[in-house]
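Feature request, filed as a ticket because there's no other form

It would be nice if the structure record came with a short human-readable summary line next to the tokens. Right now we just get the raw output. Example of a typical job, pasted below so the devs can see what we mean:
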Amino acid sequence: MKAIIYCRVSTNKTEQETSLARQKQELIDLAKHYNFSIIKCIEEQESGYEIDRDGIFQMLDYFSSGTADCLLIQDETRLGRGNTKIALFHQLYKLNIPIYTAIHDGELEVSESDSMVLQIVGIVEEYQRKIHNTKIKRGMRKAVKEGYDPSRNLSNYNKAPGRERISFPIEEVVRLRRNKLTFEEIAKTLNGMGYAVSKATVHRRYQDFHNT
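Raw output as currently delivered:
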């Protein structure tokens, strides 16, 4: 697997530089043990309670783009503390990123209390998504009832004869992409609106729309 090494200390004191170096070496050894390919080593001197860290966003960019697919940290407190830690755990789990720690010499074992919080967060987020999708679906039905034709906003509407082209509101896809939803999440949203469409179709139509 392609790994990101993340090291953090909480102060700018000179003696903490040795702690960063030690963390980095332990994680390099861990990567070698599991035959991981190290893509990037990120080192920070920031509070674990702070979410606004350059290294964190750099790390998430690597994972979101598919450039890397696992995270190596010394222990869970290096990633963050308190609510920041839970928020980052949740984001990484959503991206299907496994976390390996030097202290466990393997994959992170989340505590029972943290696991319960993550489950609750996931349930709340799922219901928020359902509420959002229901509102969109109701709004779309109302618009169609009042005469709105979503097919008029599709690119390549005058298609060649052949298999029937699936119709769905491309402007809604564009709006959801601007809100940072993935194509998989957008496909689920459209399915909730009554449009039986796959992630691949959504992605292809989105590309067609921007190429016209």
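Something like this underneath would help us a lot:
The radius of gyration is 22 Å.
The first strand starts at residue 2 and ends at 9.
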